[in-house]
Design a protein that fits this description.
With about 110 residues, the chain is mainly β. Helices cover about 15% and strands about 45% of the residues. The chain has one helix and four strands. The longest helix has 16 residues.
């Protein structure tokens, strides 16, 4: 397995039906050298999570719990933008954006 290097990062918002916006991050990765160099993409989606955690103010018995919000980038491999590799960075990026637009029903 060859190591990959992130060579470009794009972040963009996509409007959702419920009025919220979905935030995506597209990374273009390069692997190989010279004429054998290939590019592929990895797509992330920003997700929000709510957890119940022990309160930092409570101690000992009868712990109190509070809610905490976390946001994290999650790999979105359901759209298949990471399946193929391409000979140029532009072709990889354009194919990933085209796939994403098609899957989300965007013009």
């Amino acid at each position: 397995m060859q190591p990959s290097k992130v060579v470009e990062v794009l972040e963009f918002l996509v409007p959702a039906a419920d009025g919220e916006e979905l935030l995506f991050r597209l990374e273009v990765l390069a692997h190989g050298t010279g004429k054998a160099r290939r590019y592929r993409c990895r797509l992330y989606r920003l997700e929000s999570f709510r957890f119940r955690v022990p309160s930092s103010k409570s101690g000992g018995r009868g712990r109190k719990w509070e809610e905490a919000d976390y946001r994290s980038w999650v790999v979105d491999d359901g759209l298949g933008v990471d399946l193929l590799s391409y000979p140029s960075m532009a072709k990889a990026r354009n194919a990933a954006v085209r796939t994403l637009k098609t899957q989300l029903g965007l013009p």
